[in-house]
SHS2 domain-containing protein (Silvanigrella paludirubra), 578 residues
Amino acid sequence: MQKILGLDIGTYSIKAAIIWNDYKIINDYKNYLVHQLIEQKIEYKEGINEKEAQTQAIDALIKNYNLEFDTVYAAIDSKNVSIRKVDFQNIRKRDIVGFLENELESSSPFAIEDSILDYQIIEYTKNKSSVLSVLSKKEVIKDILDIIEKEHLRVKVLDIDNLTYLNMLSFLDKETNSNSENIHENVEEGEKQNIFSNLIINIGHSKTTLTFLADKKVLYTRIISIAGDYFNQVLKQKFELNYSEAEILKHFVSSMEISSTEESDSKRNLVSIVLSQAITELGIEILRTIQSFIAKENIKIKSVFLTGGSSKIKGVKDYFQVILNLPVTGIKIRKENFMFQDDEFSDNASEASLSVFSQSLAIAMRGLPVIGIASKINLRKGEFAQVSNYDKLIKQIFLYSSSVAIVLFALFLSYFIRSFLYNKEIDTLKNQFRKDVIAMSNGEPYNLRAISGKKDWDFKTYGDEAIQFLKQNMKDKQIIIENYSSLEPALPLRLMNQVSIAIPKDIYFEVSEFRFQDNQLYIEAETNNPDNINKIIDKLSKIKELKQVSKKSQSNKVGSEKKITHFSIIASVTNGEG
């Protein structure tokens, strides 16, 4: 029997899911047993850092519960890695790693030599390919392995938390979404496409992750820093509480809906209003991400699955269904594939429990024998690779022995060794100089890349071009600084303040862009009534610095059912100080 432990290491708690696979088939379906679902809250005490607190929580988890497992799967917080979709043309699979390293060298937030790189193929054809690359700093991997393996747990696979939802894709119960009121039915038959995407929204403690899944692969991910911790901070500031009191208040009310049985200004309703405002911020960010994804990928969203501890706040699911104009449900897994240990564990199959443990379950599902639909990311590579059998160890010993023999033979060829070392030092110097140029210029200029892209490129030519480029770059920056220092920063700030004062508070006026350039003011904003635009223009015309205030564009915002109007305004600006 296979016993798999999935560990979800968060900033609020450690969640564990243990799945047993006895390789039985029931009613023509492969059936697995969810043996245990456990959550251990992380206790932060004075003088103890986050790493130590997480280690103590795992220790308490092991000591307080009778965990039965033989394989451990874990995942790194996606906030600590760089995830990018990279497109290639005419590339062989064996060349992907080399091309990725070259592509990420100048654009990644981490140095390649200090990181571990892995990838998963999204699309591969003869002419065009796309991969999802994952880059993590070695120190981050070392920290997470130290936290887990300090308690003698050996991690087999180290994945990325939100990417593990691909493991769950084939087990999701999509019937609920399919049979619910189809909000997407206003799409005409001619617009329907063969590929639809599922979106999993995980509202956790420190972040909200959006994972777009379709056709057995991850298409796109995004992290939004609005989640449970942000809700606590908003309540703390609004009601002048300490953090613990704000968190208790959030859990006690746990609703964004106004209670009709209480006074409108009751404490419970005031908390619900504050939560509603914070969740609205999150909803707007999610909507913008979905609109951007659809526009870029030309793929419609079929279903939205909502999960995470903060998704249990009452009213969140209904609100997202309205603002996103998509069917939204909690995560459910197919009963024909999974059953829960004994009757007392049956409640764990509910949406409320799965919203808490969906991430740890998805991590554990990596160990199930699912062909084709699973995450392929594993950061246990290089110096962090785990030797699982003696055959590999014997092969490595043989390789090392062969290397020693080659070195001994090379001792007799001192001339060639000296030549090799000399060339190696030159190459090291060249590469270091090139890295310094890339770092100083925020990327390698095209003319320099044309030189360094050649085999055995000429150092002198590259150096002359680089020095000339850096000198010109310094001159350009000096000119920019001089121009910037001559600008008067007070006028744009004064205009922004006067616009804010001029517009009455009862007019909905949400500014998305405020740009001042060449004595021209450009404002891009949203309002909930087209008639408000003329009122806004009239108010702005009364500002003495603004002349010729006029509307430039007007349109209904996509996805708002014509309730929100997007518009832009331009105006000439005079200093007005005389």
